[in-house]
Amino acid sequence: MLITITQQQAPLRWTVHMDAWFVHFTSLAAAEDFVHRLRARLDAPHPWPSVAAPSGTTGSAPALIRTGGYG
Question: In the chain, what are the domain boundaries?
Fold first, then answer.
């Protein structure tokens, strides 16, 4: 994810850009704090979610279920 901070002149505010998303702040310190917290959360280890297999199946891989039409 590309994260940048830009300054807007009128009204004076700071904008944190996260790819196509953005959030406005009234101070550079608040924008930098947000970016620091966001980067820490993105860089934190994330456990792989465990999925319980439906009853009656064998093996460790869950079955794929198709819902809705694709194309």
Answer: 3-43
